[in-house]
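User: I'll paste a sequence; please echo it back and then give the predicted structure.

Assistant: Echoing your sequence first, then the prediction.
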Amino acid sequence: MHSVHPLWPLGSLPFVLLLIAIAVLPLIPRAAHWWHANSSKLIVSTACGLATLAFIAGTDSMGAAWHALEHVLLADYVPFIILLGSLYVVAGGIVLRGDLAATPTTNACILLVGTLLASIMGTTGASVLLIRLLLATNQQRTRVVHTVVFFIFLVSNIGGLLLPIGDPPLFLGYLRGVPFFWTLQMWKPFLFVSGSVLVIYWLVDSWMFRREPATARAAETVTRRSVHLSGSINLLWLAGILAAVIVLIPGRALPGTSWTVPNFAREAVMVACAILSLSTTRSELRRVNSFTWGPIIEVAVLFIGIFVAMQVPLGVLQQRGSELGLTSPMGYFWATGILSSFLDNAPTYLVFLTTAMTQQVPTGVISIALADGSTVAEPLLTAVSLGAVFMGANTYIGNGPNFMVKAIAEERGVRMPSFFGYMAWAAAVLLPVFLAASLLFLR
């Protein structure tokens, strides 16, 4: 869009409708069964994407619509889905089996390991790797719900903050030109938030453990089977994916050489690592992990619609973002976070990154140069990143792995909270911690 068309609210409607469908249809009994099928998600996603392209063509030109689609596919969607897919495939071949003593300290250690791994292998990969170990460890406990809820808080969300491959919003920022290791500078809020939530978990689980039946406490104070790692060859393929993301930056020379990295060389290496994972991992290991293609297909069909449909609101924000009245890092943190709670945090991150790019960088404030030549003030980029990653934990729909972990737990017989029951846990535990973090680090 070359200028903001007067009918832009109409052009933004497909984006809004798609996000409403993602949030609401699973909650309506008669619609939930239909929505459960990935083919149904593809119908809705495609319809919203096509409606957006029709709006762009009608208000600008067919050429503009085609350019928008080409840019979305090549610059954003393909790299995004290949990263998520390759991490999902590789993590699905790594199996951690064991039945440890389900004490509060043991559970907290599992959550700590998952939180640290999430930035390295992605929140999806870390969640797939550790949730079944956690459930097996706690199989004799009668109070397990809170442990899975805190797992979603920490492993499926907060833990992904430190590297772009950790959480989808940060990878989209990396694709837009945010330096790969820039996210490491957020280690202080990461330590504060993850440490605070871990301490709260240990206190809650200690209280819960004391109220377990005597037989359950006795059964869960003994380690029956130590942790055993299978499929370790996939650690090599995981390292290959990480190296590709760091080293193979399209359009730049390969370090130490004069060879310019071509487009999609990075994605080719990631796909190769996924194929090698499939060919070198015993099929029974993936069966142990209950590995299926369904979750990644769901992400793929939904995000193609999201990426296309968000082009109109993104275009509006690029030109009129300064009119939103957001100026402070704290304002960006809470605005990004609140929307990330109810919308998917990846597109929400892009919306507010785009808005932050419209703000003039004050004198004396560090600016981050992006791939398209624009700049963004580092305090605002930090606020948007923290809001998107942290507050994706506030609801089941805030981040992709949340629903995945919920489904795995329910398959194992854990009665997970309702949509609003989970929100009550998040409000009680996370919001006070987020408020403290914003006061400490974003003033």
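The first strand starts at residue 95 and ends at 99. Residues 241 and 412 are 31 Å apart (CA to CA).
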